[in-house]
Design the sequence.
């Protein structure tokens, strides 16, 4: 997943720190079992020449749906539907921190590419969920 990476310092002296950094980074590994701000390692992937030069983690999700139609007589029928989303309950980290350099020290940001949201968080509806439904036709 492409990510916007910012340097963190005002390199062009315009008062903001949103310039494109010199190097691009990508998530190398992720461990959901570690405490916050230490579960991600990243690697350098070359020069950053475009806005979306960083790479986060891919989203993974398996969904399925089953249905069965029952005839009630004549043209009437009912369809029973069962659906499940994100069957394996993948964490799907997102909202990665994108500041490459700490402005006050000039050192690499230790929280670079750390996720801030996961599946099931507010406005991230892809947690494991199931639903049942009936559809009547006549």
Sequence:
């Amino acid at each position: 997943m492409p990510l916007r990476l910012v340097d963190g310092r005002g390199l062009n002296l315009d008062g903001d720190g949103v310039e494109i950094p010199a190097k691009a980074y990508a998530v190398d590994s992720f461990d959901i079992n570690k405490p916050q701000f230490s579960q991600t390692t990243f690697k350098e992937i070359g020069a950053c020449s475009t806005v979306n030069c960083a790479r986060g983690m891919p989203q993974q999700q398996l969904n399925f749906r089953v249905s069965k139609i029952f005839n009630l007589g004549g043209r009437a029928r009912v369809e029973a539907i069962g659906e499940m989303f994100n069957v394996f309950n993948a964490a799907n980290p997102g909202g990665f921190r994108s500041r490459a350099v700490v402005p006050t020290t000039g050192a690499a940001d230790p929280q670079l590419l750390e996720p801030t949201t996961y599946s099931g968080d507010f406005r991230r509806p892809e947690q494991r969920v199931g639903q049942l439904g009936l559809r009547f036709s006549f």
